[in-house]
């Protein structure tokens, strides 16, 4: 009698090995407080002057509302695709796909320009060591091309670590965070105590910003400071309890608020507005040189390098998992669904994301000055972050709209706060986009050119709509007919049946 054929072995899946600390480390690394402070304080000062503390505090309010929406949605439907999945179910597959697409592209762009930051920091170390030329090439830390080439070598090493296991990657990020926060708190604390510029409450007054356009651009930049806390939700299928994802994200978010306010006040106590603007992405190393002699003056530079390294790796991880969710739904190709049988990670997707990030970094060489390239990238990402955060918050309000019948408190938390937060960010992005369109009369690749600043996010959105059409009409993904894809039954927790 012939025996029955053996059952096919199940395909390898993501491994549940992470806890609250891992989620918080991933979220904090992705937010990259030290990098945001280092490159962002000068950038935001060039837009709104000394009102950075005011905008950081204002930006936190809608971001907190969106974080609470993420936590509620994650309890209802834990999925590594998070916003892509939730918006698709609640608002429709087209805005859902667009949410996933702009999240992924924004993350890849972030990897590209942060690679240039890593390279720039390494070149600053080389300059301190007296190495200013190599093989006839000037090792200029302010050059986009040279900085990017060095940064891409580091990016390859980080990709390898992200592939070989989540546990090792998050522990590595935690160790980097401990060092960089110790350095950041030490130098900013010293600047706060010894700075020559008197503290002023006007720094917290947003009404002193000269124009509505400056306010909108500054607020988008401030929102960008906080971007990354949602990385904790991308590993919800690798976390022992989905609630740990929300706790990790919220812990990181409140910690970032404290660090950003502390650092912004400290920078303005130590540096004039002209100094902040002039030093741009080198503001933190400049602070170290002002406050200490060598070798201590180099510590902020080391902290900046560690932050850039951790944030790039922490961005590769959720990007590959977002593409995994889209691949399972057949809105993207099957390549993204391959999970390494030994490491339990989406290894192929991580490698491809790295390659695409390297390609975009190469294209950024068209903007020769590193500071200009950073400002252009930050503004473009700020607009698309406003878009996908806003859509996800609205998805929460729509999904839990029945909560309005369960009392004022539940109605406020489940519907009112997410809806208000989402509308604020969508309105902010729309106003800033209109401002960019009307501020220039010609196109050139410069962060001072409004058409260029609008073109970057516009191309990303249009490409997303084109890819959605491919997913619907070519791939015939069930996501566009059912609101979810083929992975719906794979979730470890049931959907909240109180959601409407």
UniProtKB/TrEMBL annotation:
Keywords from the UniProt entry: Membrane, Transmembrane, Transmembrane helix
Entry keyword annotation includes Membrane: yes
Annotated transmembrane regions: 54-73, 94-125, 145-163, 175-194, 214-236, 248-267, 301-324, 345-367, 373-400, 412-431, 451-471
Record-linked InterPro entries: AA-permease/SLC12A_dom (IPR004841), APC_superfamily (IPR050367)
Membrane topology type: Multi-pass membrane protein
Pfam family, one: AA_permease
Domain Amino acid permease/ SLC12A, first and last residues per copy: 32-426
UniProt KW Protein biosynthesis keyword: no
UniProt subcellular location: Membrane
Top-rank taxon, per record: Bacteria
Designated name of the protein: Amino acid permease/ SLC12A domain-containing protein
The organism of origin for this protein: Streptomyces levis
Biological classification of the source: Bacteria, Bacillati, Actinomycetota, Actinomycetes, Kitasatosporales
């Amino acid at each position: 009698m012939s025996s029955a054929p053996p059952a096919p072995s199940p395909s390898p899946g993501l491994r549940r090995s992470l806890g609250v600390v891992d989620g918080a480390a991933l979220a904090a690394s992705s937010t990259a407080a030290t990098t945001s402070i280092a490159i962002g304080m000068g950038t935001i000062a060039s837009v709104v002057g000394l009102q950075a503390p005011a905008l950081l505090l204002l930006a936190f309010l809608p971001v907190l509302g969106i974080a609470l929406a993420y936590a509620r949605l994650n309890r209802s439907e834990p999925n590594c695709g998070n916003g892509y999945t939730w918006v698709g179910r609640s608002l429709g597959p087209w805005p859902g796909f667009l949410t996933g697409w702009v999240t992924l592209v924004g993350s890849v762009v972030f990897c590209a320009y942060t690679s240039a930051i890593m390279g720039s920091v390494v070149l600053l170390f080389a300059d301190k060591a007296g190495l200013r030329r190599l093989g006839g090439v000037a090792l200029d830390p302010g050059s986009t091309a040279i900085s990017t080439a060095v940064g891409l070598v580091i990016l390859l090493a980080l990709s390898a670590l992200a592939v070989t296991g989540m546990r090792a990657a998050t522990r590595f990020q935690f160790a980097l965070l401990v060092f960089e926060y110790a350095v950041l708190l030490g130098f900013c604390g010293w600047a706060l105590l010894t700075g020559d510029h008197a503290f002023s409450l006007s720094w917290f007054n947003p009404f002193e910003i000269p124009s509505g356009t400056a306010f909108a651009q500054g607020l988008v930049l401030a929102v960008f400071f906080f971007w990354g806390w949602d990385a904790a939700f991308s590993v919800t299928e690798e976390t022992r309890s989905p609630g740990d994802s929300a706790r990790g994200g919220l812990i990181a978010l409140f910690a970032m608020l404290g660090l950003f306010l502390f650092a912004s006040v400290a920078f303005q106590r130590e540096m004039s507005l002209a100094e902040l603007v002039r030093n741009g992405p080198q503001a933190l190393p400049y602070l170290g040189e002002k406050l200490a002699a060598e070798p201590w003056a180099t510590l902020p530079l080391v902290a900046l390098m560690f932050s850039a390294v951790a944030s790039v790796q922490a961005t590769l991880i959720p990007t590959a998992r977002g593409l995994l969710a889209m691949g399972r739904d057949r809105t993207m190709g099957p390549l993204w669904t391959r999970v390494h049988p030994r490491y339990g990670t989406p290894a192929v997707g991580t490698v491809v994301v790295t390659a695409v990030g390297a390609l975009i970094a190469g294209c950024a060489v068209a903007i020769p000055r590193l500071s200009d390239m950073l400002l252009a990238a930050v503004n473009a990402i700020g607009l698309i972050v406003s878009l996908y955060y806003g859509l996800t918050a609205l998805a929460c309000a729509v999904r839990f709209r029945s909560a309005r019948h369960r009392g004022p408190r539940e109605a406020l938390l489940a519907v009112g706060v997410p809806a208000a937060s989402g509308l604020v960010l969508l309105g902010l992005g729309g106003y800033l986009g209109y401002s960019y369109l009307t501020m220039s009369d010609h196109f050139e690749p410069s962060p001072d050119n409004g058409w260029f600043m609008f073109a970057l996010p516009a191309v990303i959105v249009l490409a997303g709509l084109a890819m959605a059409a491919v997913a619907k009409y070519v791939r015939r993904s069930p996501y566009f007919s059912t609101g979810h894809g083929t992975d719906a039954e794979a979730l470890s927790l049931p959907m909240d049946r109180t959601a409407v």
